[in-house]
Write a structure and sequence with these properties.
The structure is a homodimer.
Chain A (H helix, E strand, L loop, with lengths): L2 H9 L5 H6 L10 H7 L2 E5 L4 E3 L7 E7 L2 E6 L5 E7 L4 E2 L10 E4 L3 E7 H10 L1 H27 L2 H18 L6 E3 L4 H8 L3 H13 L3 E5 L2 E4 L2 H8 L6
Antiparallel strand pairs in A: 1-8, 2-7, 3-6, 3-8, 4-5, 4-7, 9-11, 10-11
Chain A binds a DNA duplex through helix 8.
Chain lengths: ~240, ~240
DNA sequence: CGACTAATTGATCCAGTTCAATTCATGTGG
DNA sequence: CCACATGAATTGAACTGGATCAATTAGTCG
């Protein structure tokens, strides 16, 4: 995996549980007590556009997305918003050691979640060292993703940012055994803009440019087909422009 | 602490060990086996401008800064660089679960570090659940910092970014019992620019504007005195402009 | 169908970049 | 101790990528 693949890859990759297994440490007891807990745990269903939690709420639960997509964002009093990440099935949201949630989590479409009380998790972790390490690894992966995203927003052009974004979604598809060339966008242009530190107009114009350059096809405004993956990758790497 | 204070605050705050104590969980054995290890651990001295480690190096050690300042950055083949964070005495660097370092760590001035082999740390953590949780909390704090930084770079103007940066350094001084109005900058304009996603010229011009507006005084180019903290805070919050 | 929201496209503007000199600071050797 | 070299910082002038403002146009849902 190249430097840039790793970079873009993790920029949308949350701490999916399957990934943990690959980094397993000698387990003290059950290798997946968290899994067990979640499998038998409480289910929560949230309607499209509704919030799962809000920054400042007491951090009562940790959630795992079962179906649907979630937008995680921060917002300023004056309305400026930064989308920190999008979460998809398999991703955890609400992890962290703070007393309160530090992000807002909004369902982009109808979402089904599994929940575990935060207290239960920390009680389990204070008994089972392998769980603590798994949490550490999960956070470490999220940190790597945030740092890559930081690089993207701090240094890349609009076209490069969008190329990274599309490639990250494409690679997620590939990992899940879905078509990496066909990308469904459950989020609006506004969500993408606030994720990439751009405006909706720039997102729209840049998508049009990518289409004109035959890099992608916009079958619907929520459906992107990647035509020229190689060029998209060179764009993301700053080795090409459109 | 206001929303914005929290935001700027953590944007330069690393996982300083003292902070861990405040979030302690019922310890299984010793509350600070890591501390003990580090106190008696190996010391490493690095000259100014030299690298402590490079992205891609095998992640052999975790380090704690004892004295001096460190710049953590990512870089692209074409030279574009993003400074991810600065580390100061008390901060840990090299934490994470990856096999290799994902960042470059460069000494900004002569640096003294305490080192612990990565293997030793993970062995300790797989026995002591409280250590795993502490690592989890440390990463969680770093993640919060990275997410705040993301917001700053994605949404704020040059003056707002610089105000956030100076306030973060000021608050670090305050936490350490030093003068919060007198800020020593061990990093160059170029480091600050690459941290904030701007250019050296913009940093220089914006510092000049802040001086003209009597918000700060530039006693030397490495020495900033905050004259009007309230205005600097309103700038960082986007409630004022210069 | 009609009302509403999301997306696209066009025209203009501007914050921050780029390019180009100076000026300042810090060594360093004669 | 000074003169000169070198890299860092500042300042100026011109440019530009992306923002802003302003219409359309395309979906979507009662």
């Amino acid at each position: 995996m190249t430097y840039l693949e790793a970079m873009s890859d993790s920029s949308l990759a949350h701490s999916a549980l399957p990934a943990w297994a690959e980094h397993g440490v000698p387990a003290s007891s059950s290798p997946s007590s968290l899994d067990q807990h979640l499998s038998s745990g409480a289910v929560r269903v949230v309607k499209a556009r509704e919030h799962i939690f809000t920054a400042g709420d007491a951090r009562t639960h940790v959630h795992r997305v079962e179906s649907g997509a979630v937008c995680l964002y921060k917002i300023m009093p004056d309305g400026r918003r930064q989308v920190i990440d999008f979460a998809f099935p398999g991703d955890f949201i609400g992890l962290g050691c703070e007393q309160e949630y530090t992000l807002n989590a909004q369902a982009l479409e109808p979402v089904r979640l599994k929940c575990i009380p935060a207290g239960t998790l920390s009680r389990m972790a204070s008994r089972d060292p392998s769980l603590g390490l798994k949490l550490y690894e999960a956070m470490s992966r999220e940190l790597a993703a945030a740092q890559d995203h930081l690089f993207t927003i701090g240094q890349r052009s609009a076209a490069e940012r969008l190329a990274c974004f599309l490639l990250a979604l494409s690679r997620r598809n590939a990992r899940q055994g879905r078509n990496p060339a066909l990308i469904v966008l459950p989020m609006t242009r506004s969500d993408i803009a606030d994720f990439l530190g751009l405006t909706i107009e720039t997102i729209s114009r840049t998508l049009t440019k990518l289409r004109s350059a035959k890099v992608i096809d916009l079958e619907q405004c929520t459906l992107v087909r990647i035509i020229n993956t190689a060029l998209l990758e060179r764009l993301a790497a700053g080795e090409a422009s459109i």
